Amino acid sequence: MSIIKFSIKLIFIILLPVWAETDFDKYFPAYAVAKYSQGLKNSSCKSQLEEFKLGVDAKVLWSLKVLDASGEPKPGFFYGNNYWLGLRSQCFDLEIREPLELDQEFLKNNSRYRKKSLEFPPFPLNYFVVKFNHNSTNQYHFRIKNEDIITLGLCLPGSCLPEELTEIIKQIFDKRILAISYLYSADFTLLEIYDLQDNHQWLINWRIITTCCILIVTVIMAVIGTTCDIIINQRRQKLKEKENVIKKILICFSIYTNSKIIFNTKINKDSLASIHGLRFFGMLWIMMIHTVYYSNDYVDNRTTVWRLSQDLSAQILTNGSLSVDTYFCLSGFLVSWLFFRQKIRENPSTREQKFRWLDYFGLIVKRVIRLTPAYLLIIGIAEINFGWYAETSAFRIAEKPQENCPLYWWRNLLYINNLFPWNQACLSWSWYLSNEMQFYIIGTFLLILSDLYFKIAAGALISFLIISMIINGIISSSYKYTTIDIRRLDQLWNLMDVVYSPPWMRIGPYLIGIIAGYILTRLNGKLILKRKILWLFWIIGSMCNIITLFGLYGRHLSIATTAVYVAVSRITWAIGISWLLIACQTNNAGFINKLLSLKVWIPLSRLSYCAYLLNPLLINSIYLQSESAIHIDFLPTKTMFLGIAFMTYFCAYIATILLETPYILLLKIFKS
């Protein structure tokens, strides 16, 4: 018996290398490519792939390094890990012959005892990205774009062309060579193969050239304006000398003056100090949501993320659209408050007894001029940015801004992109700007109308509010929404252009803000309440926000009840925010008002516009630059969010002083 056992062990030891060699192609896609390259016509690619295969079989160091740099099936496939990227940096580093600066006495790597010819590949290498579909039903699916696409990174001879590799990989997929294909009952369909070499041909189009020219001119103007400001203007201000128009225009681009405007924390006593704090914390909330939302194209544990989103604390993210409703409410509040405050200051005898169309269109033009220059330039920067990453990154963005922006940028310019399908969006997050512009046009019309026919304007506003509520309820009911569906991110993902971005779904908070601004003006900054009544108001206002944010957790409501919630939830949230604003401005908020009114929030609040535009751009850029997938975990994600927030505000400062503030100052010059 012992002789039989010994014989079996001996046979196993003898055949193990053979089995290992024959199984390499099942587990290492790069080896499979080399093994099945015989079908290629005689070429340097074929000969170098064969040399690579023989090197792996003989365990030559350079070939093992190449194999090690190539991707292979990773753990977590069931939970959404479709990224078998390998290491692009290692692939390119293999050709560098400079030794690492390590203590040779303690160096244990076996390259120390080998010839240099065995350590470095005998031919140039290149990193290729292979994208292919899988049809495995074992993996969790969420009905989102690209969730069934696997990304494979291969370190292979640089002489190989994508067309040659396409022929080999199709053969591998057709024969189901890879073991994972059998294990997970998956068939693979090749989509594309490309390397990450940038030929810069995508730069040759009029939009990118125009953007670059404007940016260059802007920087030149900033240099000239800053120099003129520091050397000439500051001295003239001390001497109180008059400036000519040309110098005024140049100083509009001065980094020095624009920075002083941003960091000036002096505000009037009757201004809304607390609104700066609300803007800042609201923007942090939006950035936190963006950090997770835009990780979807890069995350390797999507199922875990979905699981975490079901926790109570995660309702801050899953109900994160309320952060945008906060901004809608603030915008309506500001527009209304400024209008009625100006109305109080005017002499009633000087008012026209007809609708002031000139003032109406003037306000809209002013708004467009204030927002559009920075907006269009950031769209241009985004096209350059995403165009470059489309050539140099292993990742692909599902919304394809490098394709959509050249086709649909004009919708952004007209502020109507929120009226079109979500899959045609140029910068998906820009839907907010279109909504706010449309709300501003409606709100300003109602406010000017109220100057003549207050009851008609108030009736129209209430009608808009009720109609919006009814539409929200009808859409919720027609899609048979339940509270479970609202918490399901996959439902929202597939209905963004139905339930999320249309103006008729989001106008409610803006109208509530207009009403709150009017109420505050009527109060004239004074609201004296008994302590019990004040506590009651605070309880009601707080409950409006708490119930809206956390009220659905763990609840299972009917379709009809859910429709009621959808109809009133955003308005209820805006009522809570409006009470907070009124309480702060009427000195009924105590510590909360002191916190929100801290002067440190004022500069950060002024950066909100550019911060909102740039934040998703930066997040995607960071993810696209990575050579590995993102793994969402609580503490690392929070740390990443803080770093991204800092970078966002830094970039927003640069964008504000160069792209936003100069045009606001120019508008003031031409207006005067």
TrEMBL record:
<dbReference type="Pfam" id="PF01757">
    <property type="entry name" value="Acyl_transf_3"/>
</dbReference>
<feature type="transmembrane region" description="Helical">
    <location>
        <begin position="461"/>
        <end position="479"/>
    </location>
</feature>
<keyword id="KW-0472">Membrane</keyword>
<feature type="transmembrane region" description="Helical">
    <location>
        <begin position="360"/>
        <end position="382"/>
    </location>
</feature>
<dbReference type="Pfam" id="PF20146">
    <property type="entry name" value="NRF"/>
</dbReference>
<protein>
    <recommendedName>
        <fullName>Nose resistant-to-fluoxetine protein N-terminal domain-containing protein</fullName>
    </recommendedName>
</protein>
<keyword id="KW-0732">Signal</keyword>
<feature type="transmembrane region" description="Helical">
    <location>
        <begin position="206"/>
        <end position="232"/>
    </location>
</feature>
<feature type="transmembrane region" description="Helical">
    <location>
        <begin position="316"/>
        <end position="340"/>
    </location>
</feature>
<keyword id="KW-1133">Transmembrane helix</keyword>
<feature type="transmembrane region" description="Helical">
    <location>
        <begin position="278"/>
        <end position="296"/>
    </location>
</feature>
<dbReference type="InterPro" id="IPR052728">
    <property type="entry name" value="O2_lipid_transport_reg"/>
</dbReference>
<dbReference type="InterPro" id="IPR002656">
    <property type="entry name" value="Acyl_transf_3_dom"/>
</dbReference>
<feature type="domain" description="Nose resistant-to-fluoxetine protein N-terminal">
    <location>
        <begin position="42"/>
        <end position="197"/>
    </location>
</feature>
<feature type="transmembrane region" description="Helical">
    <location>
        <begin position="437"/>
        <end position="454"/>
    </location>
</feature>
<feature type="signal peptide">
    <location>
        <begin position="1"/>
        <end position="20"/>
    </location>
</feature>
<feature type="transmembrane region" description="Helical">
    <location>
        <begin position="533"/>
        <end position="553"/>
    </location>
</feature>
<keyword id="KW-0812">Transmembrane</keyword>
<feature type="transmembrane region" description="Helical">
    <location>
        <begin position="604"/>
        <end position="624"/>
    </location>
</feature>
<feature type="transmembrane region" description="Helical">
    <location>
        <begin position="503"/>
        <end position="521"/>
    </location>
</feature>
<feature type="transmembrane region" description="Helical">
    <location>
        <begin position="644"/>
        <end position="666"/>
    </location>
</feature>
<dbReference type="GO" id="GO:0016747">
    <property type="term" value="F:acyltransferase activity, transferring groups other than amino-acyl groups"/>
</dbReference>
<dbReference type="InterPro" id="IPR006621">
    <property type="entry name" value="Nose-resist-to-fluoxetine_N"/>
</dbReference>
<feature type="transmembrane region" description="Helical">
    <location>
        <begin position="559"/>
        <end position="583"/>
    </location>
</feature>
